[in-house]
Design a protein that fits this description.
With 148 residues, the protein is an all-alpha fold.
Amino acid sequence: MNSAQFERMPHFIKKEMDSISEKIRPMMKKISAYHIFGLPMMVIGIINILFLIFDSEMVIDNYLIPIIYALLAASGLALFKESRTLKKEIHEVGKDHIIERINQSKIMEEAEKSRYIQSVQRQVKMDLQPFFKFLTEENKRNNTNYFK
């Protein structure tokens, strides 16, 4: 997550998003590296294998070249699939942090906390809207308790 995306948000939401970003930043670097190297390796390997398949002048002595291209394509595919797995892990880390943060709240009541937690857990991917609603409600209550 890029902190520039959250520039227009209130400071209490920006603070929480920065803490989530700190937790997922190492995984994001890995995903970027896996994409940068995996996709080209896969494409180059597959294209070269296709060229070799349709090349009618291939002799039996040159079976090492298609094997190398196949390994290149397989390595690229493995890196690409690993990046997809890491994306799912990022969503889980984000959800875990959100649930942990909701549980740590001392302002909200337990029933409301469990309602927000269930809302977060129902999401297939990390949807931030329930978390933003929680943070906004918590901030409102914190400010009204402060003025009493």
